[in-house]
Amino acid sequence: MTNKIREYDVLGIGLGPANLSIAIALEEQAQTHSLSYCFLEQKPQFEWHGGMLLDGTRMQISCLKDLVTLRNPMSQYTFVNYLHAHNRLNTFINLGSQHPSRIEFNDYLTWVAKQFDSVIHYNQRVIDIQPIEEDGEVTKVKVTSSNANGDKTVRIAKSLILGMGGMPKLPKQFEGLTNTNVLHSSQYKQWKESTNNLPVKPKIAVIGAGQSAAEIFVDMCNRYEEGEVHMINRRFALHPADDSPFVNEIFDPEFTDHVYSREQPERQEILNHFSATNYSVVDMEELNAIYGRLYLQQVTRKGRHKYLRCHEIQEAGEKGQQVSLRFNDRINNQQSWQDYDAVILATGYRYDEFNQMLNNMRPLMSESSVERRYRLPMKNKCHVNIFLQGCCESSHGLSDTLLSVLAVRSKEIVDALLEHKALLSTEKMSA
Ligand SMILES: Cc1cc2nc3c(=O)[nH]c(=O)nc-3n(C[C@H](O)[C@H](O)[C@H](O)COP(=O)(O)OP(=O)(O)OC[C@H]3O[C@@H](n4cnc5c(N)ncnc54)[C@H](O)[C@@H]3O)c2cc1C
After folding, report:
1. Which atom of ligand 1 is nearest to the CA of 389?
2. Which range marks the domain in which residue 57 is found?
3. Where does ligand 1 bind, in terms of residues with CB under 6 Å?
4. What do you get for the CA distance between the two ends of the chain, in Å?
5. Number of domains in the chain
6. Which member of 2, 30, 341, 414 has the greatest number of CB atoms within 10 A?
7. Is the pLDDT of residue 157 over 70?
8. Could you tell me if residue 256 is inside a domain?
9. How far is it, in rounded angstroms, from Cα 285 to Cα 290?
């Protein structure tokens, strides 16, 4: 007996905050349109950046920029309602901060995700998308997903909403290394909890200059007080994240219109100008704490943790159980090798995975760039909507990979979907 292939109006790929926000918008905005939809997520359950869910880490954004408040503050899925439902609203207010711990925000997101269980399929990694052509027209796609055992499932969809987030970016010097103590920051927590082959006083390299590098450096220093943890950066200094109020306005949803309406060189100028809000920057409090910690080592003459500035990694190789790094120290103009028991690469993410995912759709895509409402323009014979989330930074601005615009973006995408559906049914009636 063969299973019947399910067909959906809308299929979401990935279930992070972006598509979770779409799930809410579909429920709240599209109630009367009887759309069928589902979301496919590769993980076995909901988790928001589980590899970095460390004690003491906080949100870099106000909790009012949750999945829905900026679109519909009366929604039952707001962060405030989550607090209320868990009987913590007063206590949270008493904390006096709009920046909850990441552990709490993950709990909020999981609470929302649970309410959409009936439309989410976990343990489903999308591996292929194929256009379905009938009479020279493409109105549907075939989406194949695979579970952890390699069993494949096929679903048909009329519209796709990609929300796959970023993929770990690894410097090329580390490609091909097999040592399990060389890892990307996205795997950090799982590695930390499972690793047991490090010496008692290990020597550890944390590569990077951003928030994740700083959090991991602090966490490793706390765990291995008598070890030697190096935070390694090719720049001179750690720089603070600019979250001052005037600058923060670039994350207001209206700013997306501003960026989108500019020509590409000007968009790039805006991205460069404000990059210190998000890239290779560290929360000021964290940065001061790191400086204070390293200073105290000088006072007590205890501790061997270091910040290695202007160190460029030229080469990485395996040496027994260890990893050897060849540095170019640009301050002292010296080349040197150092051996480490573990290397943690807090080297960021890339957001171009959609290209690979949409490979088979490419002949159907038009040359023009993504629309303001995040839809990929298609050639005339293709009527499938494909929306992109989190990979439109170059056209829509710095907020695209973050949480700031989620609530409003999901409205824009669902509006575009509903208009398309209305248009199709008008065409059908007049045919
Ligand atoms: C440690 C960390 C902390 C952060 N903190 C903040 C913050 O405080 N404020 C802020 O604004 N931003 C923050 N960010 C930025 C972050 O990108 C956003 O918070 C948010 O996670 C973006 O949501 P998303 O749904 O686009 O992507 P993601 O959260 O990455 O979710 C994408 C989902 O898609 C799934 N997926 C990918 N490929 C497939 C596939 N082929 N098939 C099925 N499923 C797939 C993934 O498993 C994942 O669950 C942080 C990022 C990190 C790494």
Report:
1. 26
2. 6-166+351-430
3. 13-19, 40-43, 48-49, 52, 59-61, 125-126, 163-166, 212, 389-390, 401-404
4. 38
5. 2
6. 414
7. yes
8. no
9. 9
